[in-house]
Design brief:
This protein is of the alpha+beta class. The chain has helices at 11-34, 41-54, 70-81, 86-93, 115-122, 156-182, and strands at 58-67, 104-108, 134-136, 139-150.
């Protein structure tokens, strides 16, 4: 009925149909290219070792207080160093969602944090704060390292499917890169 009513002639519908067609063709081609090329046990093990080697070896548990200005960060740091409760100061002053938990960020790897924050945390010992607040694109951070622990990589069998997907995705990316080398690509503006 939609075709009788001319829905396929509507410019927006026609564009959506064209995109859906291209997606379907791309999916079909991807399946054809990858068929029979499932990763071997050895490839999975190599990928696992590569991922494990690149993992952070330590997790950090820290608190922080995020404020807009260095002046306020300096003032709050002085209060904490004079004996004020870090958690109470965080609850009263921090601009982010951790304020309700007294600034508690829980356990995290450095790769999840912006570089200036991660660098500051990595330089601390348990119970320490940096001597000065740390600036990131989010504002000024007062940081306190609560603890550290060694990370334990997930067992191979637990991540086998994700490893297979990573390898297949790499194969598909390699195929697309080869196609691009010989393709004539025109950009329409």
């Amino acid at each position: 009925q939609a075709i009788k009513d001319g829905a396929d002639k509507d410019p927006e519908t026609a564009a959506r149909l064209a995109v859906a067609r291209l997606r379907l063709l791309a999916d079909s081609e991807s399946q054809k290219v990858l068929r029979g090329k499932e990763p071997t046990e050895q490839e999975l093990r190599v990928e696992y070792e590569s991922v494990i080697t690149g993992m952070d070896k330590t997790e950090y548990h820290a608190r922080h207080i995020l404020v807009a200005t260095k002046e306020l960060a300096d003032q709050l740091t002085k209060q904490i160093k004079a004996g004020a409760s870090f958690e109470a100061i965080a609850k009263a002053n921090s601009m982010d969602g951790s304020k309700d938990r007294g600034g508690d960020l829980g356990w995290f790897s450095l790769s999840r944090m912006v570089k200036p924050f991660a660098d500051a945390v990595q330089a601390l010992k348990k119970g320490e704060m940096p001597s000065t607040p740390v600036q990131t694109q989010f504002g000024w951070h007062i940081i306190k390292l609560e603890d550290t622990r060694a990370t334990t990589p997930p067992p191979f069998e637990q991540v086998r499917e994700q490893l297979a997907n990573r390898i297949m995705q790499k194969r598909l990316q390699e195929y697309v890169a080869e196609l691009k080398k010989t393709a004539k690509i025109e950009k329409k503006i």
